[in-house]
Amino acid sequence: MQQEIDYGKLGMKIKDMRTGRGLTQDILAEMVSCNTSHISNIENNHTKVSLNVLLAIANALNTSIDYLLSDQYENSSLALDNEILRTVKNCDNDKKEKILKIIEIL
What structural domains does the chain harbor? Predict the structure, then answer.
């Protein structure tokens, strides 16, 4: 059975990541080379995002399409693992040691 993309969930994930990175819709739109209203329409499920724009958004948010859609996979573990690795890779050794201690505590 073919599964459909839930564009509402995708839009919410994009919005959460955008706001988590302190970006406005205007800034993201500029980074993606589209209109602010298009970003708003994507986030509020008024339009379906094209693959090209989704790729540009993922790049602008320093994430992957895989992660943006991860909560729609039957097995989202791999996408989450990759996002964790991508985030940790950009940290210095001191932060990596702190992250490791937190993981061990959890």
Answer: 7-75 (1.10.260.40)
